[in-house]
Amino acid sequence: MSRLFSTRPGDDGLPGPERRLAVLALILGTLMAVVDVTMVNIALPSIARDLEVSAARTVWVTNLYQIVCAAFLLVCASFSEMISRRRLYVAGLALFVVASLGAALSRSLEWLLVFRAMQGLGAAATLSIGPSLYRSIFPTRLLGSALGLSALVVAGGYAAGPALGGLVLSAVSWPWLFALHLPLGLVSLWLAWRALPREKGRRGGFDGRGALGSVVMLGSFFLAMDTLGHGAPLWQALAWLTLSVVAGGLFLRRQRRASHPLLPPRLFQVARFRLAVSASGLAFVGQGLAFVALSFLYQQEMGFSPLHTAWLFTPWPLAIMLVGPLAGRLADRVNPSVMASLGLVLLMLGLASLALLPQDAGVLDSLWRTALCGIGFGLFQPPNNREMMTSAPRELSTSASGVLSTTRTVGQSLGVALVGAFMAASAPVQATLWIGCLTCLLALVASLARMPLVGAVQADSAEQPPQVQSPSKRVQ
Asked: Which residues contact 356 (CB under 8 A, 6 or more apart)?
C-alpha cells in the first residue's frame, strides 16, 4: 500500500501526502454510493410495513436510485469539465448527504422516493468522474494499482452492504440506514474540498440537447430492463426500449454536431478504447446475470435459506477484494490485456462450473465455484479499467470515466433483465448461467483482439502528461 503513495522525480499527479487525503475522499464517497444499494435492499420489507405500502411499491426505493444514477452519469461527467471535477464531486457529495438526511426523516413513500432520486443524482456526480480523478491523483506508473484499489473498495462495499444493513436493522429502525451517511459524508466533503486536484473549468457551452437525449436514452433503457426483469407485460418493455433506441439515435446524431459533445466521437476512434469498453460491458452482463441467477439457483433449486444464500455469495466479492489490487499492480508492469484475458477465462470457467452444479451439492462445492468467478473478475476488472483510461487521450479522461461507469451499469442491468426474461419464459436458471458464459466468451474475444495493439503502443512510457498541481499550490 505504501507504494501507492511513493513519489519519484518527474511523477505526474499529486505529491504523496496529499495523494493520501484525496484517495480517502474518493474511497468514502464511493463506499457510500455502493453500500447504499445493497444495504437498503435489506430494509425494503421494513419500509413497506412502517409506511403502510405494498412490497411492490417499495421496490422503487431501490429502482429509482439506480435509474437516476445511471441516467445522469454521462451528463455529470460532461458538466464537470465546465465547473471542474473537484467542484462537481463536492456538490455531488453535498447533495447525497442532504438527501440522506431527507430520506431518514421521510414519513411517506412519496417523500422517500424524492430524496432517493436526489441521492441517485448525487451518486452519479461522484461515480461518473471517480476513475478520471484517480488518473489525475496518481502518477501514470501507478494507475493500475490505483484502479485495483478502486475495485477493492467497490467489491468491499457490495459485500458489506447486506451485513451492515442487517446489523443496523437488528438494533434500530430503517431511517438510521440513511442517517449513517451523515458523518461519513461530512468527513468526505471536507477531504474532497481540501485535497482533490484544483483545476480550471473549460470555457464554452454545455450540450443541453445532448444531455436531454442522454437522460431519455439511458433512463428509458433502464426502465425497459426493469420492466423486463420483473415479468411485466412484454409490450411495456418494448415501448420503453423503442423510446431508448429513438433517443439514442438522436443523441448520437447530436454528438457529431455539438461543439462540446457529452460523448466525443473521437474517443471511440481509438481501437484499444473501443475493445476495452466492449469487454467491460460484456463481462458486467455476465456478472449481473450471475448475481441474480445464483439467488434463484441456491434457494429454489438447491433449497438453501436466504441467509445461507448470502454467505454463498460472499466468496465472489471477497475474491475481488483480494485479487483486484494485485491484478492492478501487475497491470502496471505487464500487458494489461494478458491479465484481463486470463481473468475472463477463469470467470467463464467459474460460471460454467456453477451451471453444472448438481442440486445435491454441498456448501464447499458451491463456495469454490463462486470464488473462482470472483478471482476471474478480480483479475479482469482493474487491468481492463486501466486500458480504458490510458488508451483515451488525457484531455478526454473525464468522458472516458463517464463511459466506464455507464458501461458497468448498463451491463449489470442487462444481465439482470436477461434473467427475468428467461425465468418468465420458464427456462431453467442454469440456462442463464450458460448465457453468462457466452457473454464472457465474447468479452474474451474483444480482450484478445486488442493484445497486439497494447503490445505495439507503450502508452505509459509514451505519455507525457502535465503536472497536476496540488490544492495548496494553486488558487482556483
From this structure: 430
**Can you tell me the distance from the alpha carbon of 284 to that of 405, in angstroms, rounded to the nearest whole number?**
11
What was the pLDDT predicted at 129?
84
Torsion 42-43-48-50 (CA) sign: positive
Q: What is the pTM of this model?
A: 0.76
Distance of CA 351 to the CA centre of its chain: 21
195: cell is 485535497
What pLDDT is recorded for position 99? 95
The CATH homologous superfamily to which domain 263-458 belongs is MFS general substrate transporter like domains (1.20.1250.20)
Query: Average pLDDT in the 256-284 region?
Result: 85
Angle at Cα 349 formed by Cα 31 and Cα 365, nearest 5°? Answer: 80
For 254, the grid coordinates are 447530436
Residues 89 and 112 sit within 8 Å (Cβ to Cβ): no
Q: Is the pLDDT of residue 464 over 50?
A: no
CATH topology of domain 15-197: Growth Hormone; Chain: A; (1.20.1250)
Q: Which amino acid is at 434?
A: W
Q: How far apart are CA 376 and CA 373, in angstroms?
A: 5
CA distance 28 to 31: 5
